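Wed. Picked up where I left off yesterday with Histone deacetylase. The coffee machine is broken again, so keeping this brief.
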Amino acid sequence: MPLQIVHHPDYDAGFAVNHRFPMSKYPLLMEALRLRGLAVAGALSMPEPAPAARLKLAHAADYVDQVIACQVPAKIEREIGFPIGPRVSLRAQLATAGTVLAARLALKHGIACNTAGGSHHARRAQGAGFCTFNDVAVAALALLAEGAVENVLVVDLDVHQGDGTADILKDEPRAFTFSMHGERNYPVRKIASNLDVALPDGTGDDAYLRRLADILPDLSRQRHWDIVFYNAGVDVHAEDRLGRLALADNGLRAREDMVIGHFRKQGVPLCGLIGGGYSTDVSALAARHAILFEVASRYA
Ligand SMILES: [Zn+2]
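Structure written out below (tokens, as returned):
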């Protein structure tokens, strides 16, 4: 069975190449996965846009309606970082549904990854920080509501703190949020996760991996997890434009192996999301995101 990969061509909302958000990383990631022999028949699934009712499990109903109608107030669009037109709205609905679909595939096959997702700054009331809907929170709450899972773990290793996920899931005792991130990075006002680990600027492979290796067993001792959502943001990389940390490609690869290996050896289904990554060299960035899929395929 090849690694199950969820994708959609409309994950790319077609921003200008010089936009601060490197939208072209989505088609370039798919190209990288094809080159690596991972995007093959039997591996790929495509989501339908998420229904409004599902999005409203995690988000305020008026905000969901505003995004779907492309009538988001300008103040919120500024906090998100781009205007919500038809392509961006569709993209947000698809990426969120993609994480729900990847989670279902993970429950069935043990592991699956979405070629988007990890929009962890979207809070219950609104989007922020390049995030329109919080795909992980929507998927977690959808699976819990259906009774498909009883205990959900979020492992968020994007370099930015997972404030939106923490905000949405803070009153859900069946979900546990863990964020390890750069201390001095966005968001300035962090919303506490169940467990937050803040790293100093310039943290490199060894210190990063040692810290993570200490924490993973603690997470597993808490309770039996029915699924783990893994935000594998690559903005921890030394060459990331926004990251402030200093991981190398090998460090990223070791991180993915550590996280995925840890949970798969215990039989916990894992749903991987690409999370953040910012670089003007978008091909190099896509190759960094592809590492998640290369490592995950060894556990499929
Ligand atoms: Zn990030």
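Quick read: The beta strands are 4-6, 44-45, 111-114, 152-156, 175-182, 195-199, 227-231, 270-273.
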